[in-house]
């Protein structure tokens, strides 16, 4: 079981590395190619929309063919996305560059299910650690993605980042090689039963898990997407913004080595609440100044808050459905989460361009308050142990 979890860790790392690298480049390339600078984050928004759109077809593929064929399709999508991004950079065509975000987003959306695959192959006692460990593959991605950008951004002059995208296209190929070694559960029986979808999504545990995941990813994406542009406007170069994104990505995934243990010890709701508090602290640091230290510390706190909230939300989701309901519940959850992420990606560039960095930071606070309110609501509804 643990060997399979580590293989999923490696697959997650490779797929995530391309996404982390894209996070460094996308807004900068969009800013350089788009005539309207408020559209600089449009490629990220399209990618997140495609990620949301991937949830339902991914659920159908996983339900009918099983996990492995679905993950192979995701890797092929990521490869096609990187190659289309490369073509957009080569031709200087903003529309073509945006088109690459569609297959890239589909691949990223399917790769989000590695955490669910880990939950399915792990024993109940090991499940929190398996989920957080697979998501910790992002630590390797955090080291690999930005370093690839730094090393290859000028590999094919005069086309900045063209060589990077050609290298990123190779990562899904390696992932498919590792998938050949992974043993995953077969597709669930057709017509396996379970409650209808509307009943699943009305459960308090599902509502809290979906909203916590939505707030975790939405607030993180809102701030992270525009950070490279804000740093550029403050006079920082590509290397500095890549380093800040690297700090952010390490903070996102590094805690996965111990987040599962924290959930086991303290419970899932306190960990989600701690993540919301860390994200609020990120806003405070972001409003205090715009030095490299401010960007680095704020994005580090943002990543740590995302980890606690999103890993907690994933564990909470696993308690909200029966085994035969898992594919429908997971697809519905990711549709909600990544639909929000797509909206924040669209909003990020527009709010940043029209209202500024301070307003962009303050915009995340109401969402954090909503998540904390739902955590308190579900805690109040939870059955209390009988006295003595």
Automatic annotation (TrEMBL):
Name assigned to this protein: MFS transporter
Signal peptide positions (record): 1-17
Highest taxon of the lineage: Bacteria
TM annotation in the entry: 44-63, 70-88, 94-114, 165-184, 205-224, 236-258, 270-289, 295-319, 331-351, 357-377
One Pfam assignment: MFS_1
Domain called Major facilitator superfamily (MFS) profile: residue spans: 205-388
Annotated organism of origin: Belnapia mucosa
Keywords: Membrane, Signal, Transmembrane, Transmembrane helix
Gene3D superfamilies per record: MFS general substrate transporter like domains (1.20.1250.20)
């Amino acid at each position: 079981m643990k060997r399979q979890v580590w293989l999923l860790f490696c697959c997650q790392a490779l797929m995530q590395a391309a996404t982390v690298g894209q996070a460094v480049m996308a807004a900068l390339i969009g800013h350089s190619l788009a005539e309207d600078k408020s559209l600089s984050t449009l490629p990220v928004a399209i990618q997140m929309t495609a990620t949301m759109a991937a949830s339902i077809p991914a659920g159908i593929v996983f339900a009918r063919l099983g996990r492995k064929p679905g993950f192979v399709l995701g890797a092929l999508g990521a490869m096609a996305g990187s190659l289309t991004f490369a073509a957009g950079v080569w031709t200087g065509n903003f529309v073509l560059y945006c088109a690459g975000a569609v297959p890239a987003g589909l691949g990223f959306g399917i790769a989000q299910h590695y955490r669910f695959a880990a939950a399915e192959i792990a024993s109940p006692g090991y499940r929190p650690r398996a989920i957080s460990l697979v998501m910790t593959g992002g630590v390797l991605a955090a080291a690999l993605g930005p370093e690839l950008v730094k090393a290859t951004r000028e590999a094919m002059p005069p086309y900045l980042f063209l060589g990077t995208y050609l290298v990123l296209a190779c990562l899904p190929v390696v992932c498919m090689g590792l998938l050949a070694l992974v043993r995953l559960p077969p597709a669930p029986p057709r017509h396996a039963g379970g409650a209808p979808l509307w009943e699943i999504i009305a459960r308090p545990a599902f509502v809290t898990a979906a909203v916590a995941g939505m707030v975790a990813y939405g607030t993180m994406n809102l701030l992270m997407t525009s950070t490279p542009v804000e740093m550029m406007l403050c006079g920082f170069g590509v290397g500095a913004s890549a380093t800040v994104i690297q700090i952010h990505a390490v903070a996102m995934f590094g805690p996965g080595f111990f987040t599962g243990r924290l959930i086991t010890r303290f419970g899932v709701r306190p960990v989600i609440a701690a993540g919301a508090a860390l994200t609020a602290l990120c806003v405070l640091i972001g409003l205090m100044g715009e030095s490299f230290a401010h960007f680095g510390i704020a994005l580090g706190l943002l990543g740590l808050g995302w980890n606690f909230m999103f890993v907690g939300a994933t564990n909470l989701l696993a308690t909200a459905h029966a085994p035969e309901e898992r594919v429908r519940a997971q697809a519905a959850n990711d549709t909600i989460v990544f639909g929000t992420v797509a909206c924040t990606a669209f909003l990020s560039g527009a709010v940043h361009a029209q209202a500024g960095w301070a307003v962009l930071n303050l915009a995340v606070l109401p969402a954090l308050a909503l998540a904390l309110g739902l955590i308190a609501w579900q805690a109040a509804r939870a059955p209390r142990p009988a006295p003595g």
